[in-house]
Design a protein that fits this description.
With about 270 residues, the chain is an alpha/beta fold. The protein has 10 helices and 8 strands. The strands form 2 sheets. A 4-stranded parallel sheet has the order 2-1-3-4, with helices on both faces. Strand 7, helix 9 and strand 8 form a beta-alpha-beta unit. Helix 6 crosses helix 10. The longest helix is centred in the middle third of the chain and has 16 residues. The termini are far apart.
Length: about 270
């Protein structure tokens, strides 16, 4: 069969993705990407450290990022996305900006990080008060709160699991349960942290139930990278990528006596 009339595959625009060595959700990233864009994913070198602030610092060292970006240069991506939340908030706002500068120097193209994309998304949605869901330990969760507070964002509630490994194995059911426990008070939005935590299919469900925008680490990373390319992320009825999904009735605050209380000193979440 002569297929020469097809003229070859359509041109693809490239997004380079640098992920930590234990990242397991490549397929989830692709679900937000339109057909005209390809993801080129590479990983940082393995280090024998559990998920912690120490690991976040190790996988975000500028030399490590530079090597990963240089490995992507051969396929000529138009933008580089660092897909790790803790690795990009552990150094605060100044640390996140320095990471982008280091990646841009190595790749000569613009760069975004998950935590920088989070702040972009909060501005896009006009959010000043946010509830948090994380799979992290209390110390990593507190570091995320400090990053948001530095950006002028108030954290109204949180739920965390205390995990140090195998985060990608957390089922949707647990993510939904944590979300329900975290959203108390007058949160403008819910952020589900960690690029290794599955979230794609629960976002529309949670937005319908909680009546606030729900954003996740992988979602904001892809949204910001594609936005920098001048194109849009795709996905089913999510407030961040579909303006029509932002017009929701205001969620009434829960009565004080029935708001779930999560002890701040607890290392994990139950």
């Amino acid at each position: 069969m002569d297929v020469s009339f097809l003229g070859g595959p359509h041109p693809q625009r490239g997004v380079g993705v640098v992920a930590p060595f234990d990242f397991a959700l490549d397929r989830e990233l692709w679900r937000w990407v339109p057909d005209a864009v390809s993801l080129h994913v590479t990983r940082t070198p393995y280090v024998p450290v559990e998920v912690s602030l120490d690991l976040a610092r190790l996988v975000s060292e500028h030399e490590t990022l530079g090597e990963a970006v240089r490995a992507l240069n051969a396929v000529e991506p138009e933008i580089i996305a660092y897909a790790c939340t803790s690795g990009s908030f552990v150094g605060g706002i100044a640390g996140e900006r320095a990471m982008c500068e280091a990646m841009t120097r190595s790749g000569a193209v613009p760069s975004v990080t998950t935590s920088g994309a989070l702040l972009e998304a909060l501005v896009e949605l006009d959010v000043r008060r946010v509830a948090l869901v994380t799979p992290y330990t209390v110390s990593v969760t507190q570091s995320l709160e400090e990053y948001l507070q530095e950006a002028g964002i108030t954290v109204t509630g949180r739920a965390y699991m205390g995990l140090t490994r195998h985060i990608w194995k957390v089922p949707y059911r647990d993510v939904v349960d944590m979300a329900r426990g975290a959203v108390r008070g007058n949160a403008d939005a819910l952020f589900i942290s960690c690029t290794n935590l599955p979230t794609y299919d629960v976002i529309p469900q949670l937005e319908a139930e909680l009546r606030i925008p729900v954003i996740s680490a992988n979602q904001v990373t892809m949204w910001a990278a594609l936005r920098h390319l001048g194109t849009r992320a795709v996905g089913p009825y999510q407030a961040l990528i579909d303006e029509s999904a932002r017009q929701r009735p205001v969620r009434p605050p829960l009565p004080e006596e029935v708001r779930p209380a999560l002890p701040e000193e607890q290392e994990g979440w139950a």
